[in-house]
Amino acid sequence: MTTAVTNSRHDLAGGHAAVAARARQVVKAYGAGETRVVALDGVDVDIMAGQFTAIMGPSGSGKSTLMHCLAGLDTVTSGEIRLADTEITGLKDKKLTRLRRDRVGFIFQSYNLLPTLNAIENITLPMDIAGRKPAREWLERVVETVGLAGRLKHRPTELSGGQQQRVAVARALAARPEIIFGDEPTGNLDSRAGAEILGFLRASVDDLGQTMVMVTHDPVAASYADRVLYLADGSVVDEMRSPSADQVFDRMKDFDGRGRTS
Ligand SMILES: Nc1ncnc2c1ncn2[C@@H]1O[C@H](COP(=O)(O)OP(=O)(O)OP(=O)(O)O)[C@@H](O)[C@H]1O
Fold first, then answer.
1. How far apart are CA 201 and CA 210, in angstroms?
2. Which of 27, 53, 72, 194 has the most beta carbons within 10 angstroms of its beta carbon?
């Protein structure tokens, strides 16, 4: 079953929700000739502002490639990517780097914290580098949202994996980016720490108005999202709205070995 994926819940209700990121007819191919791999095969997708979107699909279906293209970390072979009103396809490296720094946040599976800096220094580092002063009230709210208030002077080695990922979440939120991309943000965590982080991501959408996009293999993680997109063979083949973990799990079982619906 293939469903239209370009309408948001708000659009369907007749409203005009803002689009935070948009892909139009995006093709991404790696290599050439016999070794050419088409990772994305004409993807059309709208990521709605203020929503939590999960991207799922079998291994090799193009999830990371789609995320990297939407985030301006990778270039497309053809098609168009927009971040809000800015077309990023065709932007030169310098402009793209600045755009990522100023408008996009990232959370990776491996927390990517600097070991010599304490938690609060890690959180404010991207803004320090950009020469921006963090707004104190906002920073306090973010630190409170991710439950780090008592740990701000601790270095990463003095924190558990879950606490380190909280620092990474706070770092992404602190700069108030238009959109945050998470690549398996709970992939290294046990289920309890993972649930905590997912709760914080959910709270950042609900309470702070953050737009969140997360690549995941985990049906439980996807169940925290407002919308789950399913990729197979480089195409968006289905989506679900606010599904339960069981519904996501059942949907995944419907994929055959190649990832297409059976
Ligand atoms: N740098 C690259 N060079 C060549 N092929 C690549 C490169 N990156 C990805 N691919 C190929 O593109 C396809 C999609 O890869 P991608 O990593 O986006 O999939 P994925 O759904 O994120 O997979 P996984 O769940 O295993 O992380 C795969 O066939 C992969 O081998």
1. 9
2. 53
- Give distance in angstroms: CA of 22 to centre of ligand 1: 20
How does DSSP classify residue 78?
Answer: E
pTM for this predicted structure: 0.89
Q: pLDDT confidence of 97, banded at 50, 70, 90?
A: very high
Angstrom distance (rounded) from CA 255 to CA 197: 28
- Split into its structural domains, the chain has a count of 1
Six token digits for residue 194: 């993972």
Report the nearest-CA residue for atom 6 of ligand 1: 30
Cβ neighbours around 236 below 10 Å, total = 26
Closest ligand 1 atom, CA of 61? 21
Residue 161: CB atoms within 10 A of its CB come to: 17
Residue 34, domain member (yes or no):
no
Full residue range of the structural domain in which residue 227 is found: 50-75+89-253
Q: What is the DSSP string of 166-207?
A: HHHHHHHHHT--SEEEEESTTTTS-HHHHHHHHHHHHHHHHT
Kindly report the CATH number assigned to the domain that includes residue 170: 3.40.50.300
